Amino acid sequence: MDAERAYCPVHEAIQVLQEKWTMHIVRALLDGPLGFNELGRAVGGCNPATLKVRLDHLENLGLLRRTVHSQMPPRTSYELAPAGVDLQRVIDAIGAWAREHLDAASVDDQEPTAAVG
Amino acid sequence: MDAERAYCPVHEAIQVLQEKWTMHIVRALLDGPLGFNELGRAVGGCNPATLKVRLDHLENLGLLRRTVHSQMPPRTSYELAPAGVDLQRVIDAIGAWAREHLDAASVDDQEPTAAVG
DNA sequence: ATAAAGTGCTATAGTTTGTCAAGTAAGACG
DNA sequence: CGTCTTACTTGACAAACTATAGCACTTTAT
């Protein structure tokens, strides 16, 4: 039973942020609002289905605001809400850590260089 | 093609940290070294198989140190390496953000309270 | 008008990832 | 001897994620 696990904000935050693509999405949006496909390209490698699910979740949580500018032609923009913008601190912390401790070659990419010989 | 996407430390860091349970593991270990099952309990809800995979990855990355004290009875301890300890900043940033912006009820848990009526 | 390329978003099927439950080996305790 | 603990493995399975295609519609070019 984890029912006794008292409510812990850090735990909850991690639950949200550890979802695949979520931090990438936030980071991309930190530079300014983007459209759906645009965001998809900025994030790099996330497919529309997953992107939609994440975006819905983030909007639900109040980290994101979705604005429909025109239905036809479709023109939507996704923008961080104040709560989302404040994640800048987290991304910055990650950035600082990464620059200090992460080097290429230590992280194994998704693309394992395929055949070599 | 993401080949042109120049190496970006933040991106790499996010790739690592977004893996399910990774941040929970780091957070648990920030309080001091733990044994395998002990860590599993501290993380809360991660099964041994996944835990082992994450631990191996983290050790590989140099964020974690694994020390075998005795093989039989098995006694192992997992402890953050300096690079791992420095993630304290990231966890702190998440904590600060969470306390400011996250409230119970806004986050839908993995466990939807089951039957209610 | 036709064709190509763009928009936000959805549906389907297939792959990857994570989960559960059980099992292994060895010692301490009763 | 049987039970409990430890670390970790294995195999079957479910959930999550992905690729690919498509929809309704616009713009641009021919």
Task: Supply the key terms.
Arc Repressor Mutant, subunit A; mainly alpha; globular; two-stranded antiparallel sheet; homodimer; DNA-binding
Could you characterize the architecture of this molecule?
- The structure is a homodimer of 117-residue chains.
- Chain A has a single domain (9-93), classed as Arc Repressor Mutant, subunit A (Orthogonal Bundle), CATH 1.10.10.10.
- In chain A, helix 2 packs across helix 3.
- With 117 residues, the first copy, chain A, is mostly helical.
- The N and C termini of chain A lie far apart (52 Å).
- Mean pLDDT of chain A is 82; it is low at 1-5 and 105-117.
- The radius of gyration of chain A is 17 Å and the shape is globular.
- Helices cover 50% and strands 11% of the residues of chain A.
- Chain A has a two-stranded antiparallel ribbon with strand order 1-2.
- In chain A, strand 1 (64-70) and strand 2 form a beta hairpin.
- Chains A and B meet through helix 1, helix 2 and helix 6 of A and helix 1, helix 2 and helix 6 of B.
- Chain A binds a DNA duplex (30 and 30 nucleotides) through helix 4.
> Which bin fits the share of residues in helices of chain A?
40-55%
Counted up, domains of chain A total 1
CATH homologous superfamily placement of chain A: Winged helix-like DNA-binding domain superfamily/Winged helix DNA-binding domain
Distance between the termini of chain A: 52 Å
- CATH domain class of chain A: Mainly Alpha
- Side-by-side strand order of the widest sheet of chain A: 1-2
Give helix and strand order of chain A, one letter per element, not per position. Answer: HHHHEEHH
Q: Classify the secondary structure makeup of chain A into a structural class.
A: mainly alpha
The average pLDDT score of chain A comes to 82
Oligomeric status of the shown chains?
Answer: homodimer
Estimate the strand proportion of chain A.
5-15%
Low-confidence regions of chain A: 1-5, 105-117
CATH topology of chain A: Arc Repressor Mutant, subunit A
Write the CATH architecture name of chain A.
Orthogonal Bundle
What is the count of DSSP helices of chain A, taking H or I runs of 4+ residues?
6
What is the C-alpha radius of gyration of chain A, as a whole number of Å?
17 Å
- For the report, how would you describe the main beta sheet of chain A? 2 strands, antiparallel
Give a count of the beta strands of chain A, DSSP E runs of length 2 or more. 2
Shape of chain A: globular
